[in-house]
Amino acid sequence: MALIKLPGKSYNTDAVNPFVNNVFDNLFNDSFISDRLVTRVPAVNITESPEAFQIELAAPGLKKEDFKINVDKNIISISVEKKEEKVEDGKTYSKKEFSYTSFSRSFTLPEVVDYANIDASYEDGVLAIKIGKKEEAIVVKRLIEVK
């Protein structure tokens, strides 16, 4: 048996056919393709009003039963784990498709949160969670008269 040493990094393949290397470099470095290879989590908007915090999570194609929202100490966790299986049986064929969707997002809640005043709703592909503030944390607005 004979061992043959293959050329290493010093071998310049661009001199042979630079177009092929550029195509593959561009293909694998393209953000369009690389973004699809990374696991996605839904986008989140967080807003604050004087009375509450609002978390909006974009998660289309799910049902309200798919969401699991937990509050543990000062952390709120939103997770989904959905498994779907489709089976089609025909006369001469059988088709089986599996689909699995899963994600989890966690957020640290500030001390001013009223844990008894947390509501969630799911409409048009957006999960909205309203987290109320404690009464002493709500700043009362009033007009101060100058004397």
UniProtKB/TrEMBL annotation:
Gene3D superfamilies: 2.60.40.790. InterPro entries: A-crystallin/Hsp20_dom, HSP20-like_chaperone, Small_HSP. Pfam families: HSP20. Residues 35-147 form the SHSP domain. Belongs to the small heat shock protein (HSP20) family. PANTHER family: HEAT-SHOCK PROTEIN 20 FAMILY MEMBER. This is Hsp20/alpha crystallin family protein. It comes from Sphingobacterium tenebrionis. The lineage of its organism: Bacteria, Pseudomonadati, Bacteroidota, Sphingobacteriia, Sphingobacteriales.
